[in-house]
Amino acid sequence: MQTLIKNIKQIVGIDRTDRLRLQGREMSQIDTMSDAYLIVEDEKIKTFGPMSELTEQLFDHEYDATGRLLIPSFCDSHTHLVYANSREHEFVDKIRGLSYEEIAKRGGGILNSAKATAATSEEELYDMALQRLDEVVRLGTGAIEIKSGYGLSTESELKLLRVIRRLKESSPVTIKSNFLGAHGIPMEYRGHQEDYVDLVINEMIPRVAGERLADFIDVFCDQGFFTVADTERILEAGIKHGMRPKIHANEMAVSGGVQVGVKYGAISVDHLEQMGDAEIECLKGSDTMPTVLPGCAFFLNLPLSPARKMIDACLPVAMASDYNPGTSPSGNMQLILSMACIRYRLTPEEAFNATTLNTAYAMGVSDRLGSITVGKLANFCLTKPIPSYEYMPYAYGENKIETVFLNGRIR
Ligand code: NIG
Ligand code: FE
């Protein structure tokens, strides 16, 4: 099946080099083509070029994109999209002055969500997650990583991962699953959390691997949560069972999470609000993608991750939503694009690269997603009629996406 999209005002985010990620100054370039066409064959991008070179042929479908930009779908490499309950009462507690850590210590936060998850059926969790997924797809997300981590018991973690598997099977979006059993420490393990780490290692990881439920393994390696020593043990077990690490690191404190992530070949280390020079040095020359989560820092009023400094130090940077009920109740990647520019001083070009190709890398799919490249999956969006690609981050809060293509088909 062949589909023609013609009269595209501008294709944005072309990559002809097959690069898997962009770092430092490479991030400031974005390749475009104005007055263009693009042809999709089955689920892939077959070719594109200037309208003046389009030859007469018959297509199964034709779309006229006059006035519209064509951009690669956003890749959202960090979400906790499967959860049972919203947590707006904690939001109010935070406004009144409690910190995220204080709420967590009282049994709120992740433990609050774990309680609700235990009481919710797989079916209900699936329905809620599917609704959230549909919404972010309409906003331009074409690939997404989803974590477990609101279970914190073997059965509940498996339940969450089975929901993610069902989403993978039923949705046209590219989905990667991440086992985050080490997300919080259940109340009954307070004071002897190494026993919970044992449970993760000896019971959860083998069951998760046995059902092939996870692509990645994650640990919340931070002050008040899991230590570097816990993290090392869990990562070793996960790696042994074929899962690649991704780490929640350095949100509350300079936790050692970046170093342990790099040491174990993590595909990404995420959050990074608390970064010293040693952390930046350690990432240089590694395969690990530093990933910033602007929605979380915005929602919790955290200090900002030094994204600008990392790019200036020749590092790659990715930016994802962290969609979850506690620290970022939005999966809107258009807002992340705006925050990248407004709050972190990335140029629009850097922001596009941070939310497409570099996030694709951070979830291990940049060989087939994240840019407009012949042979890649045809996951892209047509915008509404807008003046330029810079308008995308500029007009924050407005939905600029009109039409979404996933695997070559309109959604
Ligand atoms: O990525 N930081 C750890 N985990 C989540 C928040 C989870 C929650 O509060 O529900 C995050 O921000
Ligand atoms: Fe997270």
List the helices and strands and how they pair.
Blueprint: E1 2-14, E2 31-41, E3 44-50, E4 61-64, E5 69-72, E6 74-76, H1 88-95, H2 100-105, H3 110-118, H4 122-138, E7 141-147, H5 154-170, E8 174-182, H6 193-210, E9 216-221, H7 228-240, E10 244-249, H8 257-263, E11 268-271, H9 277-283, E12 289-292, H10 294-300, H11 307-312, E13 318-319, H12 333-342, H13 348-355, H14 357-362, E14 380-383, H15 391-394, E15 401-406, E16 409-410
Parallel strand pairs: 1-4, 1-5, 6-7, 7-8, 8-9, 9-10, 10-11, 11-12, 12-13
Antiparallel strand pairs: 1-2, 2-3, 5-14, 14-15, 15-16
Bound molecules: N-(iminomethyl)-L-glutamic acid and fe (iii) ion.
The site of N-(iminomethyl)-L-glutamic acid has 13 residues, from α3.
Brief summary:
The chain is an alpha/beta fold and 411 residues long.
